[in-house]
Amino acid sequence: MIDFADIAPYLPGIFLAYAVLLMGLISPGPALLGLMGVSLERGRRAGHCFAIGIGAGSLCIGILTLTGLSALLASWADAMTVIRIAGGIYLLWMAFKAFRSAFRPVQPASDAIARDDKAISPVGYFGLGLGLHLTNPKAILTWIAIISIGFADGTPIWVGWVIVIGCGTISTLVHFAYATAFSTAPATSLYRRAARWINGLLGVFFAAVGIRLLAGR
Question: Where, by residue number, does the polypeptide cross the bilayer (predicted)?
Fold first, then answer.
């Protein structure tokens, strides 16, 4: 039987990792802008397939990050310190970008994906979303930060899997919801109007978590 006392010490790190992922999903990036473009131009079904592809890509990166980190920790005792510092620096960079974006217009969704008249199957849109996310440096670096937050020295491997599976599920569901919303022009317009406030809040959040990582807390 699972003892809650054994799980409780790891819950703050798990939930903070989830929070970092959610903030990353709100932050405008290649995946979000690409999803906006597909949903607006090709409709809800195409957007949903594209979103599932993004979620699958996120899960793949998470698994690779976790398994690679576990192997690195087994061979190098100071690996977690290096990963933690790298994650903290990246989050501070994200904070800088968020604050900078708060003072300039959001890139139009139409610039995120090329317009064409070729028919693409649902599997094709899934592949586009998957490929976009697997080659997205932001997604890779975000996963390094996520794992470094919830998976410290001496942490059981199951904690890492809870983070990876949970984050992969959250990513898929959130992008699926985005595809539903972005297939309607009013929702996209509302998001763009609120972009300055969203980026400002993201900057504060990323800066706080980045400093926390660098401080070793």
Answer: 15-38, 50-73, 79-96, 125-152, 158-182, 194-215
Is this structure's pTM higher than 0.85? no
pLDDT tens for 65-91 read 888 765 665 566 566 677 678 767 877
Q: List the structure tokens of 39.
A: 């949903």
**Contact between residue 102 and residue 199 where contact means Cβ atoms under 8 Å apart:** yes
The count of residues in the chain is 217
Structural domain span for residue 95? 30-108+119-214
- Note whether residue 24 is domain-resident: no
Q: Angle at which helices 11-26 and 137-150 pack, to 10 degrees?
A: 160
SS (H, E, C) 66-118: HHHHHHHHHHCCCHHHHHHHHHHHHHHHHHHHHHHHCCCCCCCHHHCCCCCCC
Which residues have a Cβ under 8 Å from the Cβ of 45 and sit 6 or more positions away? 122
- Counting other chains too, the contacts that 157-160 makes at CB distance below 8 Å and 24 or more residues apart are 157/70, 159/10, 159/13, 159/14, 160/66, 160/69, 160/70
Phi, psi of 120 (to 5 degrees): -120, 135
**Within a domain: 21:** no
